[in-house]
Amino acid sequence: IYPEIGHELFLIAGGDIPRARSLDVIAQPMDILPTLCDVAGFTVKPPKPFDGHSFAEPVLKGSGEHRDYAVTGCYIRSQGANPPRKASTPFLVTAHWGYAPVGALGHPELYDLTVDPLATKDIAADNGEMAKTLHELFMAYLSDHRASEEFLSLWERAPDGDTGGGVWAIDYPEKTL
């Protein structure tokens, strides 16, 4: 889910929220409910804790940061030992970088979002160490959010330049694992 889809406006107003302010915070959809509860002063005790984290503090202050990075993607389930044939790629974003563990051509993609905010120029081939660092962050994110071992195995191989990684590469016949 590249920036043109994942970089969304979220409008929130009312109460103690400063007017006519714009924030550039990294957040995820799972952060919305905890944020709205905090802004409204409403306390909930769900049976399971929220995975999201409130970004009410920067909203109410009119400045600040929320997350260092966010991951977007879709739910993927493989059939037995076979990886899924089609799925949208996850996309990890920081204030500086955008990283897709597998892109349109079957290899990891890396974008410098400070100069390429729409992620149009893949620079992974010249920035292998940064791609590896972001892949490790991506894997840590999946583990922190209780991804199954089966799901983690789809992404377990770190990128090595433009030679690609995990078993998802089966959808790219020119690639050999």
Helix- and strand-based class? alpha+beta
Side-by-side strand order of the widest sheet: 1-2-3-4
Beta-strand fraction estimate: 5-15%
- Give the low-pLDDT segments: 161-167
Can you describe what's shown?
The chain is α+β, with helices and mostly antiparallel strands and 177 residues long. Helix content is 24%, strand content 9%. It has a four-stranded antiparallel β-sheet, covered by helices on one side. The protein is globular and about 50 Å long. Mean pLDDT is 80; it is low at 161-167.
What secondary-structure arrangement, pairings included, does this model have?
Layout: H1 3-6, H2 32-40, H3 56-61, E1 69-72, E2 91-94, E3 97-100, E4 109-112, H4 128-144, H5 149-154
Antiparallel strand pairs: 1-2, 2-3, 3-4
